[in-house]
Specification:
Number of helices: 10
Strand order of the largest sheet: 3-2-1-4-5-6-7-8
Strand content: 5-15%
Distance between the termini: 53 Å
Number of strands: 8
């Protein structure tokens, strides 16, 4: 049974710690710099929490750092457990962030978007693993396979490109959803009207490439419709974004 301390109590840490506990891992403690987050997750897991790095449980075999990228090294430096495995969950931070801090280091990166209060089926979530030694690489693969059937070993260099592509595919797309919702809200229309369209768009790329799935006025270069859309937009930033995306699509065909 793996004894784990989670450094962080945000969206990813919440869903991952719950999933690992349900699969038999022993979560010894939760750390968060904010007491509200620490208390909320400790109650879900029924484990102790702390908001002080010098009060971290020293009995863990694995310390999983699921905090802001810039805080990983600062937190790790303050935990004096060089013989334990230090692991972070970031897509863009290299394994070397633990250099000089712990003799054992690793990455456990689940490629998914997480929210604290939304359950997720981890079985299909891709996990990307890296370690500074083969034994811990296998340990992290085995740990990931407790909750997912989609586990891969990947270098820090390749992972940063994976994370970059995920920002385009998830974060930027969700921002576009938000802008769509604002346009509809201004006209007292429901965002629910777009849900079937969004679902079908996501379904199509399972069988067609994104390039082959592209439709709309930009692909057809339907200038009258494009100009009409731009006139309807009241926000100058949205007009610029519409033009930029339209031109990008047009240039891709």
């Amino acid at each position: 049974m793996n004894k784990i301390v989670f450094i962080g109590a945000g969206n990813l840490a919440t869903r991952l710690s719950i999933a690992l506990q349900q699969c038999g891992c022993e979560i010894l403690q939760i750390y968060s710099r904010t007491e509200e987050s620490a208390v909320a997750l400790s109650k879900k897991l029924n484990v102790p929490y702390t908001t002080f790095l010098d009060k971290i449980n020293s009995e863990a075999e694995i310390y999983i750092f699921s905090v802001n990228d810039y805080a990983i090294r600062d937190c790790a430096i303050k935990i004096k457990k060089r013989e334990s495995l230090f692991v972070h969950t970031s897509g863009s931070v290299p394994l070397s962030v633990f250099d000089g801090i712990s003799i054992r280091s690793g990455v456990l990166y689940p490629l998914q978007t997480f929210s604290k209060e939304k359950n997720i089926d981890f079985e299909k979530v891709p996990f990307f693993i890296e370690s500074n030694n083969r034994k811990d690489e296998q340990l992290l693969c085995n740990l990931s396979r407790m909750i997912s059937q989609n586990v891969h070993v990947l270098s820090s260099e390749k992972r940063q490109y994976l994370h970059l592509s995920a920002v385009f595919a998830c974060n930027f797309v969700n921002h576009i959803y938000d802008l769509s919702a604002q346009i509809l809200q201004e006209q007292s229309l429901s965002f629910e009207y777009l849900i079937p369209l969004i679902e079908e768009t996501a379904e199509k790329v399972k069988t067609l490439s994104p390039h082959d799935s592209q439709t709309g006025p930009a692909v057809r270069y339907d200038v009258p419709t494009i100009r009409k859309h731009i006139r309807l937009l009241t926000d100058e930033k949205n007009k610029k974004l519409y033009n930029l995306l339209t031109q990008s699509i047009f240039n891709n065909f």
